[in-house]
Amino acid sequence: MRVPSTAQGGGSARRASPRAIADAVALRRDVLRLPERTDGWRVVHGDGDRFPDRRDRYGPWVVVQITTFAAAQRRTEIADALLAECGATGVWERA
Q1: Which of 3, 16, 83, 85 shows the greatest Cβ crowding within 10 Å of its Cβ?
Q2: What are the Cα distances from residue 61, in Å, to 18, 19, 27, 87, 91?
Q3: For 44, what's the count of Cα atoms within 13 Å in the CB-facing half-sphere?
Q4: Where are the domains of the chain?
Q5: pLDDT digits (tens, 9 = 90+) for 1-52
Q6: In Å, what is the CA distance from 38 to each residue of 11, 26, 58?
Q7: pLDDT for the residue 16
Q8: Mean pLDDT across the stretch 52-62?
Q9: Pairing state of beta strands 61-65 and 40-44?
Q10: Residue ranges of the alpha helices (H) in the chain?
Q11: Element (H, E) at 53
Q12: How far apart are CA 15 and CA 50, in angstroms?
């Protein structure tokens, strides 16, 4: 069971940040070199990146699934960071 915290300095609200997205994308782009190998890859993995929810790249689109209140409050900021880091055409939110 996960219990997210929105307290300052911790919890999923802090992790759902542009910096956390940049770190996750840098790992996949610079270390794993996924964009050179495929056009479909997991941009951010909730558990592995200590980031709420998931974000996947499908061709020119990033698909997000937001299931936490903290991430939902920062939906626009998260989408903007994904666009900036991935160079995607758009962000699609799935229910």
Answers
A1: 16
A2: 18, 20, 19, 9, 6
A3: 29
A4: 11-94
A5: 445 555 544 455 555 688 989 999 999 999 999 999 999 999 998 788 888 7
A6: 32, 16, 9
A7: 62
A8: 91
A9: unpaired
A10: 11-15, 18-26, 34-37, 69-73, 75-86
A11: none
A12: 7
Which residues, including other chains, have CB under 8 Å from residue 73's CB and lie 6 or more apart?
Answer: 13
Which tokens in the block code for residue 55? 């974000």
Higher pLDDT, 95 or 43: 43
Class of domain 11-94: alpha beta
Single out the residue of 81, 8, 21 nearest to residue 51, CA to CA.
Answer: 21
> Which tokens go with 65?
């699934």
* CA 57 to centroid of chain Cα atoms: 10
Q: Which tokens go with 87? A: 């160079």
Distance CA 72, CA 94 (A): 12
